[in-house]
Amino acid sequence: MDELVRDGARQMLAAALQAEVAAYVEQFADALDEDGHRLVVRNGYHQQRAVATGAGAVTVTAPRVNDKRVDQETGERQRFSSKILPAWSRKSPKVAEVLPLLYLHGLSSLDFAPALEQFLGSGSGLSAATVTRLTTQWQDEAKAFEKRDLSKIDFVYLWVDGIHLKVRLEQEKLCLLVMIGVRADGRKELVALTDGYRESTESWAGLLRDAKRRGMRAPVLAMGDGALGFWAALRDVFPTTREQRCWFHKSANVLAALPKSAHPGAVKAMQEIYNAEDIEHARVAVKAFKIDYGTKFPKAVEKITDDLDVLLEFYNYPADHWVHLRTTNPIESTFATVRLRTKVTKGPGSRAAGLAMAYKLIEAAQNRWRAVNAPHLVALVRAGATFHKGKLVERPTDEETEVMVA
Q: pLDDT digit string (tens) for 363-396?
């Protein structure tokens, strides 16, 4: 069956390459030399090569194009470049997405070819030298990402978290400071990723100041773990930004202060709080939680009551957005598999490589992120609209909204 799948993939890829070349040649059919001969023609085939795909190793013989046209400005020959199968490509994008994930899990670059050969039928294009070259390329991409201009992007919501990865060559764990935002059009996007010292206020302040220097506006609302040094840094750099504590982290902290026998009931009681109909019902649920657990487990109750305002802040925004705002799930889900494996693997070989791999991991995941629910309401949040019980009660002018979206 695997061979049938690979044969089908081989035939479809060959047909797609033939069609791409035919379209290119036809596009320049009118380009002729002085003798009336076409300047762009077919020219046989390239040497056969194996490409690693999700269906396994597929043998490809790509058609060639002889393009004799000359660029008038540079004087250089024009060249055909396949969008389907770029020159020297040895792996599909999907396979390339797997490499950062495996590297973060601790797989040595020497182990890539033999490990993936069992699944792909070939280790072609996945040698240690290739992985090392990719790592260097990804490090350069991560550095360029850290310097990009943020003045033309408006992030209304912001998720933050610190991700700890074990680094093989260094004793200290690599702490990645991650910020993912929601643009005014509702799309999610990686805002910043850098190497921090633990999760200190100084590290977060440095990241926020750098983002502000590159043009980032103050977000309306930031979501994160209550233990982060981020909050002190946020109040210093973006004092107008509202705060929302992550219920995923908070629930774990509350359960840690309770005996296991009380966990099922406590989980259900906390769900009554953050899944309430509105903030008034949520406060009633908090009182019920206090009555049920306050006498025997006061410390567990205090973990909620001491942070109540910032735990219920999300209720002041559109009801469609509540599910997005009450946790740091976009970050948690992206790094979930890596976090699960860091205790049993060696981790990435250097801090720079770990940062680069994390960047590529998020970049790949970012392509699959969906926009927040009711994305049209994000611009209204930025424009200062008021929401009561999750519904819009004060709408800004159309001109204000257009400015925010732009």
A: 877 888 999 999 999 999 999 999 999 999 966 5
Residue-level length of the chain = 406
Nearest-angstrom CA–CA distance, 316 and 386 = 8
pLDDT value, residue 169: 45
Contact 311, 251 (CB under 8 A): no
What is the rounded distance in angstroms from the CA atom of residue 345 to the CA atom of residue 78? Answer: 48
Stretch (H or E) spanning 6: helix 2-27
DSSP helix/strand/coil, 159: strand
Cβ-contact 183, 117 below 8 angstroms: no
Whole-Å CA distances, 361 to 257, 333, 358, 367, 368: 34, 11, 5, 11, 12
SS3 call for 227: coil
- Domain ranges for the chain, please list them: 2-67, 92-246+343-372
Pick from 241, 237, 305: nearest CA to 270: 305
pTM for the complete prediction?
Answer: 0.70
Q: How far apart are CA 117 and CA 382, in angstroms?
A: 50
User: Domain spanning 92-246+343-372 has what CATH number?
Assistant: 3.30.420
Q: How far apart are CA 57 and CA 84, in angstroms?
A: 16
